Amino acid sequence: MNQPTVSEIIDRLKSVLNGELTREEISNWASYYVMADDPNIDDEIVWDLLKIISGIDILDSPTSYLHNEEDIKDWIKQATKSLLK
User: Fold this and answer.
1) Does pTM surpass 0.70?
2) DSSP secondary structure code for residue 53 in this structure
3) Residue 28 and residue 43: Cα distance in Å, rounded?
4) Where do the structural domains in the chain lie, given as residue ranges?
């Protein structure tokens, strides 16, 4: 299993904002790593992002998500900053 990169996570988050991926699709993708018996993710930033986005599809009511688009934009901003370090 190849480890995802921060850039790949950013691209997937942008795809959610653009309507190219659903929240459920990215949550399932992230959960694959988070729920693995031996996730083997070396990058702490990647691991933290995967844990966060594995819950991107959580509903706080029948018609709205717990995490709004501003949250997703914030995650992208924080992840992008980590690339510059």
Assistant:
1) yes
2) H
3) 20
4) 6-84
